[in-house]
Amino acid sequence: MRDTTTVEDSMTDTQIAGAPSAGAVVSKGGRKKKKDREASLWSDAIDDLRRNPVFLIGAFLVLCLLVISAVPQWFTDGSPFDSTACVLQDSLKTPSAEHWFGYDIQGCDVYTRTVWAARNSVIVGIVTTTLVTVIGGALGLLAGWTGGIVDSILSRFTEIFFAIPLLLGGMLIMSALPGNAWTVSLVLAILGWPQIFRIMRSSVLQNKNNDYVVAARALGAGTLRITLRHILPNAIAPVIVVGAISLGVYISAEAALSYLGIGVQPPEISWGLMVSDASVRWLQAPHVLLFPAVALSITVLAFIMVGDAVRDALDPKLR
């Protein structure tokens, strides 16, 4: 057995100097290059998501849903949605080769209505999540970073909204407002932002006393720079996770409000409104209820899958 010490001692200085160091890449000219990308939470999360089948399936379903919502005419006859394009003599006809989803009680094509209903449901989910994230995130960042009397006032103000159940409060407010996707989004955002506020505030409190924040403050960095460059990027991960999961929840809430008759109103269309209309004759014609309900379930499931995958990728403890 050869002595490794003798081998190492026999190496010349040139050979040692020319050996590539760990983490470096040798180019054709013999020069060493550092890796193009350093490891970080976000880069590791992206790599993890690329290999996660749950995320890939959920992201594919979400992408399909966004395309259908943006250009529903591509998936129907190319004409704009017309709620009056119904023929009573076709009422409750079962699915066929020409009309895949059959007809509802008014003689309207269920497939066309299901496709066009995706737009309002997705609008509610995306707009509500955006408003909730911006409002709750900004106030939570302010409360967590400032502390003191500002934190106390915002926390007590948030507790008032926490005492109002989402659906019950939505029913109360929507009963006095016009029913459309934008109104529903605004009402749900008003009632839903406290959750994001608490998550952002807690995350900021965990990060504000870390070494990198103390070092930045010692080097003379201003409050705005520390907040935007150090606190926010490290505190936003839990908010993104909750926002992704909550998007499906808000779509379900819109469907519930529309089912109760105080959400999206005719001549607009949504999956909740279709389920409400179909509930009268669902035993006689189950296909009228089945297809919008399945579309709603798949949509909610897709966003929950994406949110769960993002949570697992951004939480090192779950790896």
TrEMBL record:
Pfam families: BPD_transp_1 (PF00528), OppC_N (PF12911). The chain crosses the membrane at residues 54-75, 122-145, 157-176, 182-200, 231-251, 289-310. It is a multi-pass membrane protein. SUPFAM superfamilies: MetI-like (SSF161098). CDD domains: TM_PBP2. Belongs to the binding-protein-dependent transport system permease family. This is ABC transporter permease. The lineage of its organism: Bacteria, Bacillati, Actinomycetota, Actinomycetes, Kitasatosporales.
